[in-house]
Amino acid sequence: MGLIKYLRQWLLKPDIRTSVSSILFSLSELEKEKTLSEHGRSMLATALSHADRLEERVLRKYNRHTENHSSNAQANVSAPANRIRVKETLLLAEANNTMQQFLRENLSEDYLVTCVDDGAQSLELAREINPDIIIADALMPGLRGYDLCRILKSSIETSHIPVILLSALNEKENIIFGLEAGANDYIVKPFDVDILKARIRNILQSREQLRKTVFSPGTPIEETNYTNELDIEFLDKAIQMIEREIANSDFSVSDFCSLLAMSRTSVYNKLKSLTDQAPNDFIRIIRLNKAKDFLESGKYTVSEVSYMVGFTDPKYFSTSFKKQFGISPSKIDK
Questions:
Q1: Does domain 221-331 have CATH number 1.10.10.60?
Q2: Domain definitions of the chain by residue range
Q3: Rounded to whole angstroms, how far apart are CA atoms 122 and 135?
Q4: What is the pLDDT of residues 204-236, one digit of tens each?
Q5: Which of 265, 207, 255 is nearest to 231 (CA)?
Q6: Hey, which of 91, 144, 209, 237 would disulfide with 131, CB 3.0 to 4.6 Å?
Q7: What residues does 134 pair with on adjacent strands?
Q8: CA geometry: angle at 288 spanning 282 and 294, to 5°?
């Protein structure tokens, strides 16, 4: 079936999440075709990038739909996308109905809040919706917040999700226990909700700053200030995989995910959270950063470097390079 015809049929499908995944899979399979022209490969890379972003928007929309498992979501989706702030998703795991309602009402203005009242359900939802942050009662029924945090932080697919534990236990031992379980913060009940809001903002802003430093010149991944070793190891491995295949113009997102032994969705969630880049964009940036290193060495021409980093068209490489760094590759100081 032609891609255009497929897309038209997709628009009529009720399960939009499944459809987007199918589009990504189809584009990834097309990426493997060796008969594509360079222009076609360029257009395909653009399509993959847009499809990744579409998947993110679909997940955001799904999160709105599942917020508190009700129709109480108040997000304004009618305004143009470039005029509204995209709210971060917050998973609230709190067994006490009064506390849950209080927090939902106070946090919904700034975040897309999904509420659950037991730990096992919160673990399932965390894996499904990949929230930007989790707030969990340390002593929830089913699965305590302590244990929820430990499970999330020990899994490569969820270790990047920040967790704030809430607890009435204020002894030093309890606080240490929570932090050692991997919690990003531990707040003792009762608490001032404005302080909780400030703690959430600080964590999210800190992570945003980290995303900006990942590709900073001269900043090794191991020196990036991620608190979870799994996150550092993931980024280090991801970059090594790409650099190992740097000259392979056929290296695709599907190949990348296979080498990482992770699903495309898991890789997308992980990279988006840690670097704010979709997989296709992440690979491209690593290629271009390596190209910049080659050019600065003064040993190679622009055409040679383009092939060395997996671009088969020097003109397209120059366009991509200038878009990334704001300067033509031919003008890089040797």
A1: yes
A2: 3-65, 87-213, 221-331
A3: 10
A4: 998 888 887 776 655 555 555 566 789 989 999
A5: 207
A6: 91
A7: 91, 163
A8: 140
